[in-house]
Amino acid sequence: MKRLSVIDSAFLMLESRETPMHVGGFNLFTLPEGANEQEFLHGLADNMRTAESFQSPFGDKLKVGRMGMLGPLFWEPDTSLDLEYHIRHSALPKPGRFRELFALVSRLHGTLLDRNRPLWEMHLIEGLENNQFAVYSKFHHAAIDGVRSIHLTQSMYSADPRERIHDSPLSMAARERYRAALDIPPPSEAQLRNVAEMLKSTFDSSGHMLGALRQYAGAWTGSNESLTVPWKKVPASSINTRVDGARRFVAQSWPFARIRAVGRALDGTFNDAVLAMCSGALRTFLLNHGELPSESLKSMVPVSLRRPGDIDSSNAVGAISADLATNVKDPIRRFHKIKASMAAGKAMFQDMSSSEAALFLQLIQLPGLALVPLGLATRFPPYSTVISNVPGPRQPMYWNGARLEGIYPASIVTEGIAMNITLVTYDTQVDFGVIGCRRSLPQIQRMIDYLEDSLVELEDAAGISWAGAAKAAPEAKPKAKPKAKAKPKAKSKPKAKAKPKAKAKPKAKAKPKAKAKPKAKAKPKAKAKPKAKAKPKAKAKPKAKAKPKAKVRPKSRSK
Amino acid sequence: MKRLSVIDSAFLMLESRETPMHVGGFNLFTLPEGANEQEFLHGLADNMRTAESFQSPFGDKLKVGRMGMLGPLFWEPDTSLDLEYHIRHSALPKPGRFRELFALVSRLHGTLLDRNRPLWEMHLIEGLENNQFAVYSKFHHAAIDGVRSIHLTQSMYSADPRERIHDSPLSMAARERYRAALDIPPPSEAQLRNVAEMLKSTFDSSGHMLGALRQYAGAWTGSNESLTVPWKKVPASSINTRVDGARRFVAQSWPFARIRAVGRALDGTFNDAVLAMCSGALRTFLLNHGELPSESLKSMVPVSLRRPGDIDSSNAVGAISADLATNVKDPIRRFHKIKASMAAGKAMFQDMSSSEAALFLQLIQLPGLALVPLGLATRFPPYSTVISNVPGPRQPMYWNGARLEGIYPASIVTEGIAMNITLVTYDTQVDFGVIGCRRSLPQIQRMIDYLEDSLVELEDAAGISWAGAAKAAPEAKPKAKPKAKAKPKAKSKPKAKAKPKAKAKPKAKAKPKAKAKPKAKAKPKAKAKPKAKAKPKAKAKPKAKAKPKAKVRPKSRSK
After folding, report:
1. Rounded to a whole number, what is the distance in Å from the CA of A80 to chain B's nearest CA?
2. Is B151 one of the annotated active-site residues of the chain?
3. Is the pTM of this model over 0.95?
4. Residues on B contacting A at a C-beta cutoff of 8 Å
């Protein structure tokens, strides 16, 4: 039996019929050449069911102690695991477009997981057009976070289209195979000592913690203008309202290089560009509803506190509160305000160890979660929305020969925060999943168009253009223009994406020595020098992860 | 706003994630000749969505007063009704057999309805073999009971295969059309006076109530041996156990005349024969698990307290507790013990008015429901199982030309009562739906075989045989032998049924003057003389409903 952490337990305690606390999404695949859909999917299901010992969380169910849900909670092996229950075959009604897929995923994401069983489900979905199929899966957030779910995804699939994996992806064997492939050396004597010190430090009133709390206090009192803190000046909007249990889900991909180009052109990070893109879309969404607040929306931006090589922790995640500058019309000024806000948020973690950071985040997050049962979250939302960036595999992946075309995440909607935008970087693309409360945000599918419009607005303002990029840098020519499969309504569909083939691939692997840092991916100004490399003791610094070396800097175009 | 009755509210208060309190099932249809499945189903959905004013419960959502769920509850119109949410398109994975349909229905039946919306869902299911499609619907039991759901079914469909209904079946117009077709005269002055008297009587300590309570007390003290009361000698068994939220569902049809023949041959009713058939199946089920209790199982048998012509009340249902005599090996003796127990149960209602009966049933039922939240139901189940017989339309029905092939009900599993058997009489057949807790009753699908075996056992014991019946009475020759569509595995599928064409149809319509009586359908010994006819004041007597005149008495065959 393994005891759940306070944060993991909180996701269970705060769950209601209106706010299911599971994360998930769908993975899109193309069937291998000549494969029969029905046989292939049954083959995948049968293979998964061969597992005998299960990697977490597939085989573990919740055990509630004598004090009930408010007391300590544990994971224990489910001795009567019913895999037929967890692994399901589903189908789309005709014509099997993404519209039908989104409707099914919206529904599946709106129902609660059964707490009497391990907290996950997997649906093999047939009936898609174009020789594709989808796998929707959901996991309780108490059992898994976005990064862990990506590790699970990677451990299930292979980078080799010819590879056939014979052990069940749910099994311990799959986990061991994956861990071995990560090529991480066992912890050294020195590292172990560091971990011990970190553990000790969580019980210290260390100087670092004091520094962070001082900065945090400064934000409240106004002495630190860039740092946004929860609840401070969070405006009311239609996104911040009561929610019920039904969901709407849409998904779409954009080329990674395209968004990164915006970040570079404006001297910011990929993540800054993502936030600016979302900010513009939210601005349009609210403007079109005639209710853009004069105060800027604030977004929670989860950051990973996971140590490289740690593929097991369920929730190694903290949060920065970013000012989205939705009240700023000029896209360049908006971008820079967001960038400054993110930098201030990350600076706070700079001198903290990962465990200090985790403790700190528990301190500032939990009061927000506690508002939910008190019914106050809609009146005092700690943030306006959540925008979460989860790093996925940076190369094409295959499941027994079926090409993984995209990883579209569906996350959590909570009381007072009716929309969540989560994105996964996969291969050369960025896969967005937008989920919202079905009742409060009936037009959430328009966000896909608004995101595209916002990206174009940023490109125009920065004097770059994506179509131009390909011309300027022939080695980065799109592998395929928006595919023929994309129908007239293509823009709102995941496959409607230009896939650039950036020659030099960003390095996918995390450096083993850069421990537990909030990952600000592809930070252009770091010029490929991860600062943490030589430091023996892990400090929580924003990590310049895997700086891509591709010369895809697009030619400027003045308008 | 309409206030919910105590019983209706109880279904909401007692609901949990483990025990959803909705009823439903699937209707099976054959597409009209030459129809395109996708177009036809979208046509049905579009037609339903045209409604502007809704008949109950389609347009009403729950309103909780200031005292919360424990205070009074109300129905109020949902001003932002989202029909896209309630009416859904689904599809079966290939090969689209009944097996895949049962799996989907099991899943759909295991999720809770959204209390922020009107408490119903309807799923148009495509992808079935043999040019068929299915419509799964679910309604909260607080909003509807089995009889009302059959009225809804009938109001949606037509007896004329050529009829195309243009008003939405969800609309008030559909309800009015149906009500007019029922041809019930408006209540007379005398009837209104009777209703007033009945209302008054619910506040009296009337003699009838006293008589019933006296009988009830007699059963507890042993002075009335035939009358079974809740909790009295209910044995422990694997059916009476903790449940969780997941379900297993199976369905199958039998010819009405075949089951009725058993009842007649043994001088009992159709309903006695149904109970004996279920009893034998349960006996085999428990024997095969090596755990047949020495005490007999007791079944709750709901009886309708609905007045003919009352198509609106949500829960006009009471209950008799029947001794299933599962500890009796001899099928004839078992049959007679069941029959005696049912007669004693019904006699108790004989001299009560419908409102007295309702009040009485609330008195004896509610303590059982109250056990559930106290966690005592598994230790002291008030019954072993529930066997419910819902009268459906007695002629073939059509939905815009699509023939309704069967009405397969899925009911409620509660804490301590992990199996429910509900049957609907439709056209010339009886459609059984068996639902159980997925975890506690993993082999519930075997009940279909056991029911057939049990029916054969009763036929053998009574010296009759179904195959022989057709030969002996040529006018009752089966219209179609088990259809060609029925595959090798036919026995566990709803279509694997012999459809006899009984020339003289049982009268489908309820007599307007026979008010509010527990309906014991097709009671053979009543020789077509509904006793209530001449009585001015409605008494709660078992009604000899619509005695079939077909001479289908099968020739006896000694073995």
Report:
1. 9
2. no
3. no
4. 17-18, 37-38, 41, 80, 82, 85, 88-95, 100, 103, 107, 110-112, 114-117, 124, 126-127, 244-246, 438-439, 442
